[in-house]
Automatic annotation (TrEMBL), chains A, B:
<dbReference type="InterPro" id="IPR050422">
    <property type="entry name" value="X-Pro_aminopeptidase_P"/>
</dbReference>
<feature type="domain" description="Creatinase N-terminal">
    <location>
        <begin position="38"/>
        <end position="171"/>
    </location>
</feature>
<keyword id="KW-0464">Manganese</keyword>
<comment type="similarity">
    <text>Belongs to the peptidase M24B family.</text>
</comment>
<dbReference type="InterPro" id="IPR000994">
    <property type="entry name" value="Pept_M24"/>
</dbReference>
<protein>
    <recommendedName>
        <fullName>Xaa-Pro aminopeptidase 1</fullName>
        <ecNumber>3.4.11.9</ecNumber>
    </recommendedName>
</protein>
<dbReference type="GO" id="GO:0005737">
    <property type="term" value="C:cytoplasm"/>
</dbReference>
<keyword id="KW-0479">Metal-binding</keyword>
<dbReference type="Pfam" id="PF01321">
    <property type="entry name" value="Creatinase_N"/>
</dbReference>
<dbReference type="InterPro" id="IPR032416">
    <property type="entry name" value="Peptidase_M24_C"/>
</dbReference>
<keyword id="KW-0007">Acetylation</keyword>
<dbReference type="Pfam" id="PF16188">
    <property type="entry name" value="Peptidase_M24_C"/>
</dbReference>
<dbReference type="GO" id="GO:0046872">
    <property type="term" value="F:metal ion binding"/>
</dbReference>
<dbReference type="Pfam" id="PF00557">
    <property type="entry name" value="Peptidase_M24"/>
</dbReference>
<keyword id="KW-0031">Aminopeptidase</keyword>
<keyword id="KW-0378">Hydrolase</keyword>
<dbReference type="InterPro" id="IPR036005">
    <property type="entry name" value="Creatinase/aminopeptidase-like"/>
</dbReference>
């Protein structure tokens, strides 16, 4: 699935022609809620002095891409449930900023108490400018410091203070204060992953971290990203849909480990044993457990005990609340944490697990496509029913845990909506006449998958084949690229586009994102995109997606996505001993030959497709055989005939 | 010529194995100079309170890439004359920071009063850290605010104040104060360029600027870059070698034009007429002339007369002195000025001029190569004599003004030194056994050229041919690339490297830089580089170089450089009506066929070479004919035989 953080606002504006919208699209009535919120903004119970505006950002306290229902505060107050948007309520006004993907949806979900601020349009003011234009002099603007990142706080505070206002941290969240039936914070069962899956014990991860801390003279590291905590402790949860993470913080010192998590979760004997909570470990490898909420006071205590020269690492995307606990002189804000980087480079066990997960995933998809060939002519297969069937088939595979993101299952024109999710009122039937795009993936105990295939069950037009072939050429150009060690992913992005560009075509999203190992399907800090942020150099063991596409609004969408592993490659020469890298596809699902115009391929590209299909046959074929899935095996053999 | 601002310090470190060094390499004796400088640092004549350190940067008051002798203050104080370096003198210490290109040279040119700070090495402190480590508490660090850019000042001031020190602006330059025989600031004759060369009168450029100022509600624009001032007024000078610019400032308002320049230069009747100094122009198009030095006080006067909401544009790379004249509330600092952008997009007259200049330049080079073929077997041709001959042949061409940069003329291993400049003690003789690389260019009244060819006069080895062919493939991949309007140059950089990467090879400089039209051979804001700064989107009319290379230390260097024009191209499709672009080579000098391994070329690449050579024949051949340069014409016809 394309990482939406690689697209910018303007780009979404261009893509906003038609977006999927929710079933019940009548606006939420917010008169009473706004009255209550405004009352809270003056209520001494929450604030010492009344505030004139209150900002409600989208995120949670961990700056997660996906959030839990209890954190959907912006949706609660305004009704708009898209993935991105910020609400601001003043005494007189209520406004919501969102980007082009969501203009229609937001306008349908919000009542007329709300003004929609269309980001990316020239006439739309920024939040700062708007606040300055509507606020009385010397206003106070409140925000929950837990759900605003430190860098965002800094910018907003600067803009407001420049105009005579001030940004104030309101410790009690005012939405929570008026949200009567707010769901509780999830506290799902934790799964402890053994070395079989992780390859590295959490103790070794701690020791490796401490080595890096010692090198940089760092005393403590505050871990706030949920996937980093899950990765560190080799634990998984299901607090957030699709992301096997759990709500927690960790504060790691040179001789202590503090884990902040709901204590109920630690009653489970397997988890206790995994964390060695009841055994006599070495003191510096003993996990001290604290309630999730006590991270603030514990971090204060840690800071109070620092000697003048000691430093604490914290990511500059961490919450303002936690960042500001650390006095500036002790704070070392970093764009990527050591865990973010370490997690991105998979170890041999994780690589093996990712390979196994992709084979199982391919088995499920081969079955799905074989089934589709049978069923489509009956005219009863819909976008939703394919998505359901795909999930059912995946769930039959060993170590299946759940999906890694909502399945994008799209027929014809729906395929042109890049983040389409089929809903009853948009649901189309698959036919022999239209392209079908399915972008889906799963979480297995041993790995995470994410694969897109575009197929046609009848006779594709020459134009569809031509476009598909350009996308394939781009996919191959990246997948087969050889590049020096240390190359950043953005330098490969144009390889994916060259064939499309040559004919005047393009796609408006990045080419690839990092993929976690039984973790988030989107992870930093590497990727392949024309955008150059969040882009650490590629190194062997990193795993990214390779997913160029082409979209024609109102007609069709094409995307071809494999998850690929960065591997070393021996080249003829070795300039300055730098060594070279290339990619190995982990995804092993046939690419529909019917959609390829072979005249447009070079011999090298034809060889690549044949090699790829040979590997699909060998690896996935053997597993289909083992699982006795005869029809899918027949389908696989038919679909992987080599070109002559 | 490769733009060195596209390379970073680490990169240079890697390239520093062997560098060209100056003839007389005995160190400058600086005991007495340092004594005088330290005296000045305490002298109430220059400063109100003694300063404990004085920073001597490299640049001039206009942040020029090349500087005039009177601005070589850092060289004066420490002896080191490389193009990059900063000297800092405290009461006890004297230290010079420079990068890997210059470690050897600096160590040879400086006496033992100086500590060489090798930038890019881990153990080397930054200037800020070093100052903090050596200064007594509450120190004052002085710098001439005219030769430090506003953004550099900001960073240095912040670091120092964080450690309890302060950065102070010393208005009188302390080096000038002790530099007895300091050369005067050049004030060369100005040349007025008519519409025949410029295509746009300076009045129209002013009106166009005012349109942009009105759009953004800007009242004034302070122009400090010398090439922008030359471009604006359609005037050229020769104050700085190779760069046809002159020392000046301009401050442009919505109804006034203030030019700050040595008044003697305006006595020339042609210049007076050109600027309409003596005629009754409209008041808003009347140029008011002021002495160069009065820009500070005049800008103060402009600022004093501003209404509260008025804003002034100034580039964030302008000098700290001039930037700080503008009160913050009125200052709108911009990364690129409107002139920088406007100048980069050449108008039809400039494009025509650039084409003509490149034809004349090609005539000179064809003659040079024909001459070399004759002369080399005699064993008397050296790197220096070829450079001289090239200049002589260019100077025979109409409208020749001078070289656009020092000729890089390098035989065998010298070719691996990317910015090599032959000196008597490094001068090698051209032979039939080694590769020869010549990177050279000239200023003509109608345009600026910059071309690199690598040739072999005997039998190149298979390996040399292989490497040359990869470089050629990279050159063609960029030159023939088709890409959407609005693409940034850095997205094309990998195209130039793909063939080298495939074999494990690479080169450690950018692929292209912007080129001025009878202006600086390196200009922003576009380019083609793996570095992503200074990189505005490419648009039709921009002119850049395309110069991949391959360098093998101690053996040879290969570079193939054409100057290319960005042009629109009609593609089969036109996604979202964005339109597409490609490049048209302006440089028309044969590429040596002998060095090409045609087996490594695709048919498309072979066609490109044939087409290119056909164009050389037609265009340059006709001019050689017209000029009656028979031998060069014969050489051209021989060297441009099509592949079969």
């Amino acid at each position: 699935m394309c990482a939406n953080y690689y697209c910018n606002v303007l780009l979404y504006t261009e893509l906003s022609l038609s977006v999927s919208t929710d079933a019940a699209m009548s606006p939420k009535i917010t008169v009473e809620l706004l009255r209550q919120l405004r009352q809270a903004m003056r209520n001494g119970k929450y604030i010492t002095e009344p505030i004139q505006a209150y900002i409600v950002p989208s995120g949670d306290a961990h700056q997660s891409e996906y959030i839990a229902p209890c954190d959907c505060r912006r949706e609660f107050i305004c009704g708009f449930n898209g993935s991105a948007g910020t609400a601001i309520v003043t005494e007189q006004h209520a406004a919501l900023w969102t980007d082009g993907r969501y203009f229609l949806q937001a306008s349908q979900q919000m009542d007329n108490n709300w003004t929609l601020m269309k980001m990316g349009l020239k006439e739309t003011p920024t939040q700062e400018d708007w606040l300055i234009s509507v606020l009385p002099e010397n206003s106070k603007v409140g925000v929950d410091p837990w759900i605003i990142a430190a860098d965002q706080w800094k910018n907003m505070a600067k803009a407001l203070s420049g105009a005579g206002h001030s940004l104030v941290a309101v410790q009690d969240n005012l939405i929570d204060a008026i949200w009567e039936d707010r769901p509780p914070r999830p506290s799902t069962k934790l799964i402890a992953l053994g070395l079989k899956y992780t390859g590295l014990s959490w103790q070794d991860k701690i020791l490796s971290l401490r080595g890096k801390m010692a090198e940089r003279k760092i005393s403590w590291f505050v871990v706030t990203a949920l996937d980093e905590i899950a990765w560190l402790f080799n634990l998984r949860g299901s607090d957030i849909e699709y992301n096997p993470v759990f709500f927690a913080y960790a504060v790691i010192g040179m001789s202590s480990i503090k884990l902040f998590v709901d204590s109920k979760r630690l009653l489970e004997p397997a988890v206790r044993a995994h964390l060695e909570l009841d055994s006599q470990s070495k003191p510096e490898l003993t996990v001290q457990c604290f309630p999730y909420e006590s991270v603030y006071t514990e971090l204060q205590a840690v800071c109070a005990a620092l000697t003048p020269k000691e430093k604490i690492w914290i990511c500059d995307k961490a919450s303002c609340a936690l960042t500001q606990v650390i006095p500036k002189v002790h704070r070392s804000a970093i764009p990527y944490t050591p865990f973010c980087l370490a997690k991105a480079v998979k170890n041999p066990t994780e690589i093996q697990g990712m390979k196994m997960a992709h084979i199982k995933d391919a088995v499920a998809l081969c079955e799905l496509f074989a089934w589709l060939e049978e069923e489509i002519p009956k005219g009863t297969v819909t976008e939703i029913s394919v998505a359901d069937k795909a999930e059912e088939l995946r769930s039959q595979q060993k170590e299946f845990v759940g999906l890694s993101f909502p399945t994008i299952s799209s027929v014809g024109p729906n395929g042109a909506i890049i983040h389409y999710r089929p809903l009853p009122e948009t649901n189309r039937t698959l036919s022999l006449n239209e392209l079908y795009l399915i972008d889906s993936g799963a979480q297995y105990l041993d790995g995470t998958t994410d694969v897109t295939r575009t197929v046609h069950f009848g006779n594709p037009s020459d134009y569809e084949k031509e476009c598909f072939t350009y996308v394939l050429k781009g996919h191959i150009a990246v997948s087969a690229a050889v590049f020096p060690n240390g190359t950043k992913g953005h330098l490969l992005d144009s390889f994916a586009r060259a064939a499309l560009w040559e004919s005047g075509l393009d796609y408006l999203h990045g080419t690839g994102h990092g993929v976690g190992c039984f973790l988030n399907v989107h992870e930093g800090p590497c990727g392949i995109s024309y955008k150059t942020f969040a882009d650490e150099p590629l190194e062997a063991g990193m795993i990214v997606s390779d997913e160029p596409g082409y979209y024609e609004d109102g007609s069709f969408g094409i995307r071809l996505e494999n998850v690929v592993l960065v591997i070393p490659i021996k080249t003829k020469y070795n300039y300055r001993n730098r060594g070279s890298l290339t990619f190995e596809p982990l995804t092993l699902v046939p690419i529909q030959l019917k959609l390829i115009n072979t005249d447009l391929l070079t011999q090298k590209e034809r060889d690549w497709v044949n090699d790829y299909h040979r590997k699909c046959r060998e690896t996935v074929g053997a597993e289909l055989q083992r699982q006795g899935r005869k029809e899918a095996l027949d389908w696989l053999m038919r679909e992987t005939q080599p070109f002559v």
